[in-house]
Amino acid sequence: MVKKSTREYVLNFFTKNPNHTFTLQEIEVAVRKEYEKDTGLTDLYVNREVRNLGTQGYIPDLGNIIKPKRGEYRFEKGSGPIKLKSPFPENVKLDIKKKDNYTCQWCGKVETSRDRLAVDHIIPEDSGGKGVLENGITLCTHCNNRKKNLGVSIFGKNMFERYLLLAKKDNDKKTIKFLEEVLKVFEKHQLK
Questions:
Q1: Can you give the three-state secondary structure of the chain, one letter per residue?
Q2: Residue 98 domain-assigned?
Q3: Angle, nearest 10°, between helix axes 6-16 and 24-39?
Q4: How many domains does the chain have?
Q5: Which pTM does this prediction carry?
Q6: Alpha-carbon span 64 to 51, nearest angstrom
Q7: Residue 188 pLDDT more than 60?
Q8: Which of 53, 15, 13 is nearest to 34 (CA)?
Q9: Looking at the domain assignment, is residue 85 inside a domain?
Q10: Which of 63-72, 82-91, 100-109, 148-157 is least confident?
Q11: 145: domain range?
Q12: What is the pLDDT of residue 174?
C-alpha cells in the first residue's frame, strides 16, 4: 500500500466536499477518520496542513481554499488564485529562528528535536504581512495557536504585559518605563 501524505488526505477531503464551509475541528475529525480507515492509526496531525492550504489559497489544477471566517475553510473549484500569499521561504524561517535564538518569543520554550517551534507572521498575511525576516517571530505550537485565536493586537498587548512583569521582577526601571508607555498606546487606541 502506498502511504498518502497529510496534504493528500486534506485535499481529498476538500475535493469531495466543494462549496461547503467546515471548521478546522470538523476537517480534522473527518480526515483522521479516513486516515484511520486506511491505516488503522490516528496519529495524523491535520491542523497545520489545513492552515497551510488556507494560507496558500490557490491549489493548482484544483481550485481555492477560502477562509470565510477565522477557523473556517471552504474549497471552491476554480482556475486561479483569489489572493496572493507570502509564506516564509525555508532559509528565512531558519534566519528567524536563529534571530530568536530558537526560543518561543512568548513563553521562552526552547526548540528541541521533539518540540519543534513555528515561525509565524507578526503582521498576518491576510493583513498584507510579508514572509520576510522583519515580519517573523518564533513561537511554540501552544503560543502560535493562542496568537491566532487572540489576534495580533491582544497577543501583542499580552506579550508586553508579560515583559513588564519580568522587568518589574528585575527592577529594570528603564524597561518598565518603556513598556508602560507602550501599553498606554494600547489603551489610547482601545486595543483589547
A1: CCCCCHHHHHHHHHHHCCCCEEEHHHHHHHHHHHHHHHHCCCCCCCHHHHHHHHHHCEECCCEEEECCCCCEEEEEECCCCCCCCCCCCHHHHHHHHHHCCCECCCCCCECCCCCCCEEEECCCHHHCCCCCHHHEEEECHHHHHHHHHHCHHHHHHHHHHHHHHHHHHCCCHHHHHHHHHHHHHHHHCCCC
A2: yes
A3: 110
A4: 2
A5: 0.45
A6: 13
A7: yes
A8: 13
A9: no
A10: 148-157
A11: 90-188
A12: 93
d(CA 131, CA 145) in angstroms, rounded, equals 18
In whole angstroms, give the CA distance from residue 112 to residue 108: 13
pLDDT of residue 83: 55
- pLDDT class for 76, splitting at 50, 70, 90? confident
CA distance 142 to 174: 30
